TrEMBL record, chain A:
GO terms for molecular function: 4 iron, 4 sulfur cluster binding; metal ion binding. GO terms for biological process: cellular respiration; formate oxidation. The lineage of its organism: Bacteria, Pseudomonadati, Pseudomonadota, Alphaproteobacteria, Rhodospirillales. It comes from the Bacteria. [4Fe-4S] cluster 3 binds at residues 100, 103, 108, 143. [4Fe-4S] cluster 4 binds at residues 112, 133, 136, 139. Binds 4 [4Fe-4S] clusters per subunit. One of its GO terms (cellular component) is plasma membrane. Residues 280-313 are annotated as: Disordered. This is Formate dehydrogenase (Quinone-dependent) iron-sulfur subunit. The keyword rRNA-binding does not apply. Its cofactor is [4Fe-4S] cluster. [4Fe-4S] cluster 1 binds at residues 38, 41, 44, 179.
From TrEMBL, chain B:
It is found in: Periplasm. Residues 1-381 form the Molybdopterin oxidoreductase domain. Residues 682-797 form the Molybdopterin dinucleotide-binding domain. Its main location: periplasm. InterPro entries: Asp_de-COase-like_dom_sf, Formate-DH-alph_fdnG, MoPterin_dinucl-bd_dom, Mopterin_OxRdtase. Residues 809-832 are annotated as: Disordered. Belongs to the prokaryotic molybdopterin-containing oxidoreductase family. This is Formate dehydrogenase (Quinone-dependent) catalytic subunit.
TrEMBL record, chain C:
Pfam families: Ni_hydr_CYTB (PF01292). Residues 12-187 form the Cytochrome b561 bacterial/Ni-hydrogenase domain. It is a multi-pass membrane protein. It is found in: Cell membrane. This is Formate dehydrogenase subunit gamma. It comes from the Bacteria. Belongs to the formate dehydrogenase gamma subunit family. The chain crosses the membrane at residues 20-44, 56-77, 116-139, 151-175. GO terms for biological process: anaerobic respiration; formate oxidation; respiratory electron transport chain. Its main location: membrane. The keyword Ribosomal protein does not apply. GO terms for cellular component: formate dehydrogenase complex; plasma membrane.
Length: 313, 832, 224
């Protein structure tokens, strides 16, 4: 997306300076996906393609209703279908709209080395600013939800923007606008949590004792939340992580290693400088040459360096 | 729909059976979700497959395709046995108390009067016993053995839970759980809504499927009430409009019928149409048939329709058979009896059964005109597209004319939705290329025909030469002009009883009540009268306000008839005119008239005490548990197996399938047996596609790119079929090679003790468009239709399935190939 | 290639070219790698035209470096085998640091410090190569799991830092020990340089009559 809302950044990738946040009255937003109301019609998927002008490759049928078979640079949201049979043999078809979760603590942003390629707005939306993206794929490694995809065409990373362009002008995301059953709602995060509470109460009444809200604290909460009938087992929903977190490896890489390495390099550089000042150069002296000449002129020597001024290796 | 989409939210139970509302009607399905959330409704889904509708259901039960009548008859038995019917409603508003003629009977699968040779019934015994005044006799105590309710009890007594389970394969516990949920809506303040679609119509017993459910609804007192009704979800934005304006071979606009050969005079024709009341004091709306008909003739022929020529009755075509439905049309084509075909907005190569026969039949035509916005399979039937359309162009002499037309977004006009709303829409874009509006094309054909008739005479030029054609631009009538004409207008000043002028000559009618049978009014479609009045285009109204969230929104667009949103809404109130459900009244009697958010489907000032029945289109004013002679295969629904079925009819082995359904001899030969084709096939739509259109749209093609069939894990294991692997699916009529989707959502059903596997065949792929090429599920389907409507039996037939490898790839990018296998362009197609 | 009269050949032309290909790759890899490692270095991406160009070219430089380094390895590995002299030399590192080489035991062609650099690089570069391949998004992004890539990117970063630290030592040593730079740029050293820093190597040359670079043991004087 274009960098139209830079005054609303609260986080900016690979940037140590405090981002601007002139506007202080941004409400945190959230998209609430109520999977218990979702009928898997893929209207959201086509609305996403329409609004963002995406036309991913037409694939083959590969034994599932998921089409395309996975998220890709042209598929920012994807309906995933899981056929689940519980211990009693009751079948459930758990359909989940997959896409960026817009983490409060975004792993992609943490991992991104390109300043301003990934930003987080004050409203919580995590956005990829494509013109700054260098295509390294670090966001892929940083993401706990396996969302970003690198385009093989332009080598930039793409994912759901939560329609930051629409939200920025007071519209709801395209998928929300199009969802026929109201399974996708959009508003302030607080309102969405309240609404989710009502939905969960209703689901519990219908016998889904483990109904709950998916707003994983491990990533500081997300700005895309799910109402799940089986909130105790999110992984039933086509592998939604039970406890999503930024990988410890990424934490190490982007955490302690960065300052440590910087310190190490600085130390090495300074040490050499200090050594240079303290010890000075190690120069070959005339005495060394003399000593060498002495040894070379010994009777046993027949060859002495480059005798004709020419040497061949 | 008897009710509206929004009204679904008022339901306590939503039954989706004979349809797949979430997938086929995702937008309207929001109201089901609304009912669940706001009205704590239970969603019950009965379907051979665990569909996307089932994924949000409270209760799901599987059923073998084609056994819905057994299921629903069992439900009726359950309701009657457990006294879970709404007594006052059933007694007053249905024909439960009426006494059936002596001599009526049912034995071994046949009602009285069957003629095996003609495969039809003499229906004279299927009627009421009449008293001296010609009124039906009744017994309000329900003691008479031949009163309808007792005959019904007797008829459904055989459908015990065990038998239902044996026939349908539905587990008994699930079935009984569903019966119980049904029964909960017998309470006067509870309603069940029935949402159905082609899952009920596309059977050889399609009309009876729906009747069975309508009877359940009558027993439960769920017709006419908020959140109830029989709601046919139409599969096309304007298919309701198609039937409304009579685009059927046996219909005139407004559900009037085309005369038969035997209707030699207008009076003879009207004799059977103007129904006399069968109960004292009853309103029978069809008594006005003559007014509708004469006004229609005035719209058709203008001044040329006069009293002297019986309103030009003789110029109407007369049917020599029941109807020229599509099956008959193609049978005649195949037999060389039909040589030309104008195919407007229809794609028979995909939409009609037994594609091989369709291709063969089209190949025998002299000419085929295809009027369509898309490059359809029908227009390309003669081209060799490889295995998906193995035609031999050199052997086909049919001349094909392709006339590209505008699509819905490229023209203005009205669409009639499932809820009978006429919604005006406006043009959004110009048509591409040479596409022209259908009206322009039809006008062009008309003018050429007319000038040919004028010049050359011909056998019967009058019907064409006298046609009324008063449009501003005769070459291109505008949708608005047609809409005004369908509404109708006064031809002279119309006065009321006091002599005051109600309408001046030339003014638009306010409604069909103003229609006259003396030639002073005209109306192209009487049920649309009121849609474009002197106040303007009512269809263009866009006031979404819905008082008290009743789901009525009376000022949004316009609903036929008379802007009435819930049909039979008089039945929403009890005998005293008070709402059965005080929380959700539709109309109520306030002491002097009927009031409410909806327009009363009743005399607005007819007192409740007058005992006029709420079903005013019926002669007895009551909902019919006993259909009299209106259905060809019987006044009660009976379970008949699909024409291709793996099971015996355990009720009456000798009468296995619908005894009154028409089967052409060659088609019967093309029916398979369970020995060769042991699995039950059923066809359906997927939410990602709209019929055969959206395979031309890239986004839809991306969302479901390729033809596949769905099979259960057990069958896949048995046949060694892998997930996503290639399979050959075959019926006696043809084969489809496509991918397999192995799913837990289809399980083998225990039918009469035998596991029965179902193979699901989505229908959307063909050989034109941007999606991957497919054979089309209609390659497999049998050429037999519902006995009443001849809607093809797409939902239940026999298949075999084998693992195979991919069909030979054809470079589709190069388009069709000629006889030598050389790709060729489409430019050889003729144009007018 | 001509060398001044009376000098010793420290590095042949091929060796020097090989070294500098490796070296330039290493420098560019360091610049681009650091740019992708820490935001304070991101400005270095401008040296490559843009971040995208930098991201694109980095792995190719890495492949080049790997191939080039194999050349160096083949040429140098034998002379970098550790021996007793190195241990003795290493024990006198403080003297080395103080430029007091009179009190440092003599060593062959490479001293212990150089050998540490050599073996350090010989160990780290293949690791960087392999882990770099795993995180080479364009070609191998889909080849391994994201978890594998996370491990790879962490190892790659740590390895790179290690390599850069070694490189800093290496470069400083070349600046510090005068004459070393010339040895790698132009190939020759003065006998005094050799006598001062690599006396055993020097004596080996004297003994074999070669102008250099000879294997420590058996090389024969060659006509030239």
């Amino acid at each position: 997306m274009a960098d139209l809302q830079s005054q609303d950044y609260i986080r900016r990738s690979a940037t140590n300076l405090t981002p601007p946040s002139v506007r202080h009255h941004e409400l945190e937003v959230a998209k609430l996906i109520d999977v218990s109301r979702c009928i898997g019609c893929k209207a959201c998927q086509s609305a996403c393609m329409e609004w963002n002008n995406l036309r991913p490759e037409m694939e083959e049928f590969h034994g599932a209703y998921e089409n395309p078979h996975d998220l890709n640079p042209g598929t920012w949201t994807l309906m995933r279908f899981a056929e689940y049979e519980d211990e009693q043999g009751n079948l459930e078809w758990l359909i989940r709209k997959d896409g960026c979760m817009h983490c409060e603590d975004p792993g992609c942003l943490k991992a991104c080395p390109a300043p301003g390629a990934i930003v987080q707005y004050a409203n919580g939306i995590v956005d990829f600013i494509s013109e700054n993206c260098i295509g390294c794929g670090y966001c892929v490694k940083g993401c706990p939800f396996n969302i970003p995809r690198i385009s093989a065409q332009d080598h930039k990373s793409y994912k759901c923007t939560l329609c930051s362009d629409r939200v920025g002008v007071g519209l709801e995301p395209a998928c929300v606008k199009t969802c026929p059953t109201g399974a996708i709602m959009f508003g302030s995060k607080d309102d969405m949590k309240d609404w989710a509470g009502e939905r969960i109460a209703e689901l519990k009444e219908r016998g889904f004792q483990n109904a709950g809200l998916y707003d994983p604290p491990e990533v500081g909460g997300t700005h895309v939340m799910y109402v799940l009938h089986h909130a105790d087992k999110p992984s039933l929903y086509s592998g939604l992580p039970d406890k999503p977190h930024i990988s410890a490896l990424v934490g190490a890489w982007k955490g302690f290693l960065k300052p440590l390495a910087l310190a190490g390099l600085a130390f090495a550089a300074v040490s050499t400088f200090v050594h240079s000042i303290v010890s000075g150069p190690n120069e070959t002296t005339e005495e060394d040459e003399e000593a060498a000449r002495r040894e070379m002129s010994g009777p046993e020597m027949s060859g002495r360096g480059n005798s004709e001024g020419k040497g061949k290796s | 729909m008897t009710n509206t989409w929004q009204d679904i939210k008022n339901a306590n139970v939503v039954l989706v059976m004979g349809g797949n509302a979430a997938e086929a009607h995702p937008c309207g399905f929001k109201w089901v979700i609304e009912a669940k959330i706001e009205n704590k409704a239970k969603l019950v889904v009965v379907d051979p497959r665990f569909t996307r509708t089932a994924s949000v259901a409270d209760v799901y039960a599987p059923i073998r395709p084609g056994t819905d009548i057994a299921f629903l008859s069992g439900v009726m038995r359950y309701l009657l046995e457990n006294d879970a019917i709404q007594h006052a409603y059933v007694k007053a508003y249905t024909n439960a108390s009426l006494i059936v003629k002596e001599g009526f009977g049912f034995e071994d699968g046949l009602f009285t009067g069957y003629n095996e040779e003609k495969r039809s019934y003499d229906k004279s015994s299927w009627d009421y016993e009449l008293d001296e005044q010609g009124y039906a006799k009744s017994d309000d105590t329900w003691q008479h053995p031949r009163c309808v309710i007792n005959l019904l009890k007797q008829h459904v007594a055989r459908y015990t839970p065990e038998l239902v389970s044996r026939i349908c394969g539905t587990p008994q516990d699930k079935y009984l759980e569903i019966c119980k949920i049904f029964a909960s809506t017998a309470a006067p303040d509870k309603a069940l809504t029935s949402l159905f679609a082609l899952g009920w119509t596309q059977h050889s017993v399609g009309a009876q499927n729906i009747r069975a459910m309508a009877m359940v609804q009558l027993l439960l007192g769920n017709i006419g009430v908020a959140g109830g009704g029989m709601n046919a979800l139409r599969g096309h934005s304007n298919i309701q409009g198609l039937t409304d304006v009579g685009l059927m071979s046996n219909l005139l606009p407004g559900y009037m019928t085309i005369p038969k050969d035997s209707d030699v005079t207008l009076d003879k024709y009207l004799e059977t149409k103007q129904f006399k009341p069968l109960r004292p004091g009853q309103t029978s709306y069809w008594q006005n048939y003559r007014k509708f008909f004469v006004s229609f003739q005035k719209a058709l022929y203008g001044d040329a329709a006069k009293a002297e020529n019986n309103w030009a009755y003789d110029w109407l075509p007369k049917l020599d058979v029941d109807g020229y439905d599509v099956l008959r049309a193609f049978e005649r084509m195949d037999n060389g009896q039909m040589n030309g075909y104008i195919c407007q907005g229809f794609n028979p190569m995909q939409a009609f059964p037994d594609r091989g026969k369709i291709r063969r039949s089209l190949s025998k035509l002299k000419y085929l005109v295809v009027i369509d916005p898309l490059d359809t399979e029908t227009a390309n039937f003669w081209q060799d597209y490889g295995p998906q359309n193995p035609s031999k162009p050199a052997e086909i002499q049919t001349e094909v004319f392709q006339l590209p037309t505008t699509c819905f977004a490229e023209e203005e006009g009205s669409l009639v939705n499932s809820a009978r709303w006429l919604q005006w829409h406006w043009k959004a874009a110009d048509a591409p290329g040479e596409a022209k509006p259908d009206l322009w094309i039809m006008a062009g054909l008309y003018h050429r025909l007319k000038s040919m008739y004028a010049k050359d005479g011909g056998a019967f030029p009058a019907p064409i030469l006298n046609l009324s054609w008063s449009y501003a631009d005769p070459a291109e009538p505008q949708p608005a002009e047609l809409a005004r004409e369908m509404n109708g207008r006064a031809l002279v000043d119309i006065k009321d009883d006091t002599g005051a002028v109600v309408l001046k000559a030339g003014q638009q009618l306010d409604g069909f009540a103003q229609l006259r049978d003396d030639g002073t009014t005209m109306s192209g479609c009487w049920i649309f009268a009121g849609s474009w009045t002197e106040k303007g285009n009512q269809m263009a109204r866009r006031d979404a306000s819905d008082p008290r969230d009743a789901g009525i929104a009376p000022n949004w667009a316009w609903a036929w008839p008379a802007n009435r949103r819930i049909l039979y809404n008089r039945a929403s109130a009890d005998l005293d005119g008070k709402a059965w459900n005080p929380h959700k009244p539709v109309i109520q009697w306030n002491g002097s008239k009927w009031v409410g958010f909806d327009v009363p489907d009743y005399g607005p000032t007819v007192k409740p005490q007058d005992g006029v029945g709420p079903f005013i289109m019926n002669q007895e004013g009551q909902g019919r548990l006993f259909a009299r002679g209106l259905m060809v295969e019987g006044p009660f629904p009976e379970h008949y197996e699909p024409f291709e079925s793996p099971a015996e009819n355990v009720l009456h082995p000798k009468v296995k399938s619908n005894p009154a359904a028409r089967v052409f001899p060659n088609d019967r030969k093309a029916m398979g047996t369970a020995q060769d084709f042991p699995y039950v096939g059923t066809t359906y739509r997927l939410t990602e596609h709209f019929h055969y259109w959206t395979k031309h749209a890239l986004i839809n093609a991306i969302l479901q790119p390729e033809e596949f069939v769905e099979i259960g894990e057990a069958l896949a294991k048995e046949k060694g079929i892998e997930q996503g692997g290639w399979v050959k699916v075959s019926s006696k009529r043809g084969q489809v090679i496509c991918k397999a989707f192995v799913t837990k959502r289809i399980k083998p059903l225990m039918v009469d003790g035998k596991p029965t596997h179902v193979i699901g065949c989505p229908i959307h792929w063909g050989f034109t468009g941007v999606a991957r090429k497919g054979y089309g599920a209609n390659t497999l389907t049998p050429f037999v239709g519902d006995a009443n409507t001849n809607t093809p039996e797409f939902k239940a037939f026999l298949l075999n399935i084998e693992k195979t490898s991919a069909p030979p790839a054809v470079d589709v990018a190069q388009g069709p190939r000629d006889a030598q296998g050389v790709p060729k362009s489409l430019t050889k197609v003729g144009s007018l | 290639m001509s060398y001044p009269k009376g000098t010793l050949v420290r590095n042949s032309t091929a060796t020097r070219l090989n070294h500098w290909i490796t070296g330039i790759c290493f420098v560019l890899l360091t610049l681009s790698g650091l740019a992708m490692f820490h935001p304070v270095f991101f400005w270095l991406s401008n040296l490559f035209g843009s971040g995208q160009w930098m991201r694109a070219v980095h792995p190719w430089l890495g492949v080049t470096l790997m191939v080039s380094f194999i050349g160096l390895f083949v040429q140098f590995w034998r002379d970098n085998l550790w021996n007793r002299d190195d241990t003795a030399w290493a024990k006198k590192l403080d003297r080395v640091m103080a430029n007091d080489e009179e009190h440092v035991p003599p060593v062959g062609r490479f001293n212990a410090g150089q050998k540490v650099v050599f073996w350090g690089m010989a160990l780290i570069i293949p690791v960087l190569f392999v882990t770099g391949i795993l995180i080479w998004e364009v070609y191998f992004g889909a080849a391994t799991s994201i978890e594998t890539q996370r491990v790879a990117v962490l190892i790659h970063s740590m390895g790179a830092i290690g390599a850069i630290l070694i490189w800093i030592t290496h470069v400083y040593a070349a600046i510090w020990v005068k004459g070393s730079m010339r040895a790698m740029l132009h190939g020759w050293v003065t006998p005094g340089w050799a006598h001062r820093h690599h006396r055993k190597w020097f004596r080996g040359l004297v003994a074999s009559g070669s102008p250099g670079p000879t294997p420590t043991s058996t090389a024969k004087f060659r006509e030239h």
